[in-house]
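Hi support team,

I submitted a single chain yesterday and got back a structure, but I'm not sure I'm reading the token output correctly. Could someone confirm the output below corresponds to the sequence I sent? I've pasted both exactly as they appear in my results page.

Thanks,
R.
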Amino acid sequence: MRAFKAAVRAFAFASLGLLSVTAARAEDIVVTHYGSLLYGVPYAIAMEKGYFKEAGVDVTGILTSKGGGTSVRNMMAGDTLFAEVALPAALSAIKEGFNIKIISGGTNGRSSFWVTRPGEAIDKPADLKGKRFVYSRPKSVSEAITLSALKSWDITAAEVKMIAIGDFGAGLTALEHSKVDVAIIPEPIYSQKEKAGTKYKTLGWLDEKLPAYAQTVGIATDETIARNGAKLKAVIEARRKGVEFLHANPKEAAEIVAKAYNLPLDVTTNAINNIKKMNPTWWSRGELAMPLMQSMADALGSVGALQLPVDWKAATDPQFVPAAAAKTQ
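Hi R., thanks for writing in. Yes, this is the structure output for that exact sequence:
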């Protein structure tokens, strides 16, 4: 029986695309797409400004993943303290019975551009039928939002072709070579492409019917919550200070992120400004935005990607939300 349970657990890990990671120290954290997409901006600032140590935790490394379920698995496989992951991945893992809780908010709402090739005849919902859509990985935000956006225009998954490609850059390459027809460009990839002179046709109307939703959340295992609650609270507080610094000191924040992400400063500045214009509150201050989380769950349920209802009381632990963030709920 023990061997059978071990085999089942191993299969569950493999089914979400576990990346091979080395054992990590307790002070390491996982942030989805860190160093490539902008979910990690507050953490980069917190690391540079010493907010983690100031709050009471010595975060020595920020590990990354390629999104979806890999972020959850990387946290558990590496025995790391905390992870910011896609909400669909967190909910899927909880539904599968893994001992994790959602303990903080991460990012909420729209932050990417829908694009196709210049001159492509995609101008209205009916034109989407039969088209090839690219997303990152199963149980990722990009998959959930693509399916939900299509459903909002009464387009079913069976009427398009969904292609998981792993990396957003690879997805754009596939778009440029006519291997797919519609892609999501998150920042800073959009600004990098723009600087390089690459032209796309934007489809800003594609997700205009979607309600506000939560993208990423902070999670920890039940064991970590029981043993290292003070450290978890410190991580979330340090991230909150990173968000506050981003808005109060945009120029220095862009410089910090450019260095951490190894990006040109003009690209980083443009990317951050684009997100602020698109969605000023995309980086939350850590509050558990329950209506937005429910909105994402409903979207997942509506396309058969999640069994509803979600038992939010069992799935969340609100004790770690910073007092300053809780006031905004």
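A quick pointer for reading it: The radius of gyration is 19 Å. Let us know if anything else looks off.

Best,
Support desk
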